[in-house]
Structures are given as structure tokens and as C-alpha cells.
Amino acid sequence: MSKYSNCEICFRWYQLCIRFKYEKPLDNIFKFLEIIGRMKFVKPLYTEFKSSWPEMMPRVQTFFDEHKKYMNLITVKQIEIRLNNQN
Questions:
Q1: Please, is 26 exposed, middle or buried when counting C-beta atoms within 10 Å of its C-beta (0-12, 13-18, 19+)?
Q2: 7-84, which class in CATH?
Q3: Which of 18, 25, 45, 84 is the most buried (most CB within 10 A)?
Q4: pLDDT 10s per residue in the chain (87 long)?
């Protein structure tokens, strides 16, 4: 999947990978989250991690904490709401 540069295709694929706990593309998913700052893509992926793969949340939270200083403030706030929501 890393050969595709279309964000829409990557986003849909990564969403499915998270949903079905497919570990092989994890590095690519985190790279995508690091490079792509568009809320349309980033927010749903973080939400998908929380709802579908809770065992991965410590790694996701650490990644987010390390990279949020480079992200848009509104995007950061929206992701924080979703990651800290107990539901």
C-alpha cells in the first residue's frame, strides 16, 4: 500500500487495517498520521484505533503526544476529545 500516493485510498485501506487489527502496515499508518494533517483523514483513524483496537492505544497515545506539537491546534483538540472520551 505504501506505493499509493492517493490519500483517499490509503485512508480507506488503513481504516480497514485498524478495524481488523492487521499489524503489517502499522508503520505506514503511523507515517501517514505523521505526514497527513488533514482532519478528514487523521481524526477518523485515531477514533478507529480507540474503538477497534484498544490494545494499541498506549502506542497510539504516545505517538500522538510526540507529534501533536506539529499539528494544527483544532485537529489536536478534536483528537484529544476522542482519545480522552471514556465511551
A1: middle
A2: mainly alpha
A3: 18
A4: 557 789 999 999 999 999 999 999 999 999 999 999 999 999 999 999 999 999 999 999 999 999 999 999 999 999 999 999 754
| Ramachandran angles phi, psi of 38, nearest 5° | -70, 125
Which helix (DSSP H) or strand (DSSP E) does residue 77 occupy? helix 73-84
Domain boundaries, the chain: 7-84
Q: Name residue, grid cell 504516545.
A: 62
- Residue 79 and residue 21: Cα distance in Å, rounded? 20
Q: Got the DSSP string for 19-74?
A: HTT--TTHHHHHHHHHH---HHHHHHHHHHHHHH-GGGHHHHHHHHHHHGGGS-HH
pTM of the model: 0.91
